[in-house]
Backbone:
DNA sequence: CATGAATGAGTATTCATTCAT
DNA sequence: CATGAATGAATACTCATTCAT
């Protein structure tokens, strides 16, 4: 019964490894099949094509990551500790995923690109909610600099300080650069705040 | 100058545009040749293969960028204005280049990968020197928080606050994660400094 | 009668429909199995391979057709009415079957091709017998132009005027063209007889 | 210069032979390339894909055929001789082409199917014009049975007596069967006229 | 008997690179 | 130098057939 599920998982895990290592277009189904030690045709019994397999790999990886992050933060108490974890935990994941995400944006047919963006927006939304919770905690405890409490502060933090890979989903680069323009002052402000002498 | 030099430049410019737009593996020599309006074989008179052409495109783009940045900052006076420019100017470039750099890291044979890294280290070194000059200016004017004046502060700033794409050159991800571990405290420190209330 | 016979028939009917619609090579066993709502492997319990299934479908369809035609003609009285029916009834069937027959001739391994031809010759023989009966009726009533009463007149009529698909079974095209040469005079004769003014 | 044209022709001729022998879907590009003794990739320098190669083969064959037929008939004098040739000459071609045409109708993507139909309609139009010319000659000489001089008599002759393969281009089989219904009386009439005793 | 997962040979197509002219 | 035809290895995907359960 669960044998089929197990094999699907096996293929998915192998594919995830190879996609992470070599990227979407440089990973062939031959390689995935060989590494899973099954026939090429068998892969197609579980995933209708390469793009869907890739999508499944991305989805699984993101879900795993988010669950880990959520439990990790829930186990901590103080505002500073939670924020610390929120910054530290995702970095490795971001670095591992980013290249694949980026490359896929250039390799995938438009329909998948759209689904990929939608999926990432959902992921981004969950990350923003979590960050908002943490910052609210800090704000309630009177720890936060109030002139940073603008509506899109969470977005700026997520995108710029946490290397949120959602940036890289940008398809319309023009719009993206407009956003940079808008956010830039806040980035510089936080950065200079952070390095300039107090008093 | 000479006709040959001009033609080489023409190919290089076309290739740069196309590589930037579609990435390394999704840009074919057929397209480059067609866009340059020369024969495909002619490209091979100027560049021994696709990888070398890509390397040359990267090199040229970085040089252009660095020269622009350098002149821009030299024209400004105050520490804050220079730092502001140092943060703002590269962002667009970084975003435009990053995907290509990343994809190339997965597409290029090892020999080129090594050269690519060496080249990028050189670029990184020039960026670090420029940043050091600017921070020295701030430090000399007594503006900088002194407990941030550690040796590798410039590296941290370059990599994390400026989206220095040198990060993404990481081949040995283990070593890279060690470095994250090391730098992490400083990132959090600056970030919390920046967002926490003073006093 | 038995359950097994019913299931065999179910598969055969589905296969016949699909082969008629999409041709031999464009109909996959997956589709046949799905349309029959049984497992693909089950088909192989009833038919040893795709070719045999196709042969059975052809055989069944031809038998059905021949029985309908025979009964139809037996119910009519006059020579002209019978001949009329003999021309009219097969046309639709011929058009529906021809493409599949043709395609199968190019798709089937030689062993099946031979059996297919043998089978078609049998069908052709039954058709010729029926036509002979009808023409004998006309001849006996003194209706037929006697210089057309040569031995192979029935063959010519069957092949050329009734779109008898047996022509298309030709494997050895050389022999077939010889036959055309032989028959041609008769075809032209009937045709010109039919369109030229009398008197 | 003409070397490219010659090679294109070589490929086209080989393809025509193989398509004629094995049909569209059972002829692989590997086989075509091997039979032409060139590399598979080379075929793609001359024809963008298998369908276009097939279309080119059909087109060439039809043009050749039509030119031969036209010259042949122009060289003859009497009405009967011309009509004789019009019936006799196309038969071999029709038999050679029909199977391929039919199979392609089941194998080609819709865009090509449309082009194929358009092309065949043009071919059909040329055949009809030629037949009209011949029949006008007969009519002017008072040779033709006048109650057959209806408008669509040429079409009927072309489709039913000459095995005009245009029939087989039928995509909408319903409409086609309607046409059979309509034409049927005329077919029977000519046929019975042809075989029944005069007087 | 019924199932459907596993197989692997086969197919069209792409593209970096070579080389004769 | 310039050309562009020729090459062939590589790739995603299909499908008839087998076989363990």
Residues:
């Amino acid at each position: 019964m669960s044998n089929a599920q197990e094999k699907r998982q096996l293929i998915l895990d192998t594919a995830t490894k190879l996609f992470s290592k070599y990227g979407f277009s440089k990973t062939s189904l031959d390689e995935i099949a060989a590494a899973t030690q099954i026939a090429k045709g068998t892969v197609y019994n579980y995933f209708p094509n390469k793009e869907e397999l890739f999508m499944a790999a991305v989805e699984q990886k993101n879900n795993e990551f988010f669950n880990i992050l959520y439990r990790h933060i829930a186990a901590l108490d103080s505002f500073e500790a939670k924020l610390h974890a929120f910054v530290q935990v995702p970095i490795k994941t971001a670095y591992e995923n980013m290249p694949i995400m980026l490359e896929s944006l250039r390799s995938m047919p438009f329909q998948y690109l759209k689904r990929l963006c939608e999926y990432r927006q959902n992921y981004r939304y969950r990350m923003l909610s979590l960050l908002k919770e943490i910052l609210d905690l800090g704000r309630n405890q009177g720890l936060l600099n109030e002139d940073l409490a603008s509506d899109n502060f969470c977005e700026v933090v997520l995108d710029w300080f946490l290397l949120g890979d959602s940036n890289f989903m940008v398809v319309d680069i023009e719009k993206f650069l407009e956003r940079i323009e808008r956010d830039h002052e806040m980035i510089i402000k936080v950065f200079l705040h952070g390095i300039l002498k107090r008093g």
Notes: The radius of gyration of chain C is 20 Å. Helices of chain C lie at 3-22, 29-36, 40-46, 50-74, 79-107, 110-140, 153-161, 173-195. Residues 28-30, 40-41, 44, 49-50 of chain C lie near DNA strand F (CB under 10 Å from a C1').
